[in-house]
Specification:
The protein is α+β, with helices and mostly antiparallel strands. Strands 1-2-3-4-5-12-6-11-10-9-8-7 form a 12-stranded mixed beta sheet, sandwiched between helices. A hairpin with a 5-residue loop joins strand 2 and strand 3. The two termini are about 20 Å apart. The mean pLDDT is about 90.
C-alpha cells in the first residue's frame, strides 16, 4: 500500500476520486492508493487543544476488511508523532457508524494501543419536535429581547467567538464562523455584559448543529430559546437538529429544552 499526504498542489485531484461527503481535509490529510493509482481510502485529522481529532476516515467498500483502515491509522499516527506526542481521537456515533466502532475494536496492532470509551450523549431530533417541546410552551416572564449575532457590535461578536472556539478547541475560527447559521445565532446583552448566547451551524447535509450554548441567567436563556423557536417555525421545520451534551451543565440544558426523541451515545477511540 502507498500513501501520499494531501496538499494544496494535489487536493483537487483527490476531490474527484473520494466521496462527495468528504469535505476539505484538516491539518494532516492522507490518501492510501495501490500501485496502479487506485484510491483505497483516506483519513484527515485536525489539531485542537492538546490532541488531534479525526475529521473523517474513509475506506472504499471493496477494500474494507483488508487492513486499509489500519494502515491509514498507523501512518497518520506516524505523521502526527513527527510533529509532537499527542493523542488522536475519533468520535463515533455507534447508531450510524457501527462499522467504524467495530473497526477500532478489531485493531490488534500493539503500536496503536486503541482505547475506546463512552464520551457523551448526542441529542438528535426533528425541528418539528423542538417546536413541540414542553419547555417552549412555558408562559414565563420574558424581560430580555435577544439580538441576532449579526446585529451585535464587533466587540461582542469577538467575545462570543473566542469563548466558543476556546471551549470547543477550534483551530480554524474563521471557518467555524463561516458555517454559522446567522438566523439562529442569538445573544442577550445587558449593560455591556453578555448574559446568554447560542451559536448554531449548518452542516454539509444542510442540517443544524447547536454548537455552543452559554448562560448564567435562566430567563435570558429562555428568551434565546424562544427566539430560536420562532425562527425554526418560520424557516427550518423540515431540518434535523443535533446537540452534543459534553458537560453536566449542557446535559441539564438539553433535558430541559430539547426533546429526547433520539439520544445517541458517542464513543471516543483514542490511539
Amino acid at each position: 500500500m502507498n500513501y501520499i499526504r494531501v496538499n494544496n498542489d494535489n487536493k483537487d485531484e483527490f476531490k474527484t476520486v473520494l466521496p462527495e461527503y468528504i469535505s476539505d481535509g484538516g491539518e494532516i490529510s492522507l490518501v492510501a492508493y495501490e500501485d496502479d493509482g487506485t484510491v483505497c481510502g483516506a483519513v484527515s485529522v485536525s489539531y485542537g487543544g492538546n490532541q488531534y481529532d479525526v475529521d473523517w476516515l474513509y475506506v472504499a467498500p471493496e477494500r474494507r476488511l483488508k487492513k486499509v483502515g489500519t494502515g491509514l491509522i498507523t501512518e497518520i499516527k506516524r505523521l502526527v508523532s513527527e510533529v509532537g506526542v499527542c493523542p488522536i481521537i475519533a468520535r463515533i456515533d455507534t447508531s450510524v457508524d457501527s462499522g467504524l466502532y467495530e473497526f477500532f475494536l478489531s485493531i490488534r496492532n500493539p503500536d496503536l494501543l486503541v482505547d475506546i470509551n463512552y464520551s457523551h450523549d448526542r441529542y438528535l431530533f426533528k425541528a418539528e419536535d423542538f417546536l413541540d417541546s414542553p419547555a417552549m410552551k412555558e408562559k414565563a416572564d420574558m424581560p430580555y429581547v435577544p439580538i441576532y449575532f449579526s446585529d451585535m457590535k464587533p466587540r461582542s461578536q469577538s467575545y462570543m467567538m473566542h469563548e466558543a472556539t476556546e471551549f470547543l478547541t477550534i483551530t480554524d475560527p474563521m471557518r467555524f464562523e463561516e458555517r454559522l447559521e446567522k438566523k439562529l445565532c442569538f445573544a442577550v446583552e445587558e449593560n455591556g455584559v453578555i448574559l446568554s448566547f447560542m451559536l448554531v451551524q449548518k452542516d454539509a447535509a444542510g442540517d443544524l448543529e447547536l454548537s455552543f450554548l452559554y448562560s448564567d441567567n435562566s430567563k435570558a436563556l429562555l428568551s434565546i430559546m424562544k427566539a430560536a423557536h420562532r425562527e425554526v417555525r418560520k424557516n427550518y421545520k423540515d431540518k434535523f437538529i443535533y446537540f452534543d451534551a459534553v458537560t453536566e451543565e449542557s446535559a441539564a440544558l438539553a433535558k430541559r429544552f430539547l426533546p429526547e426523541t433520539d439520544v445517541r451515545q458517542i464513543y471516543e477511540a483514542e490511539f
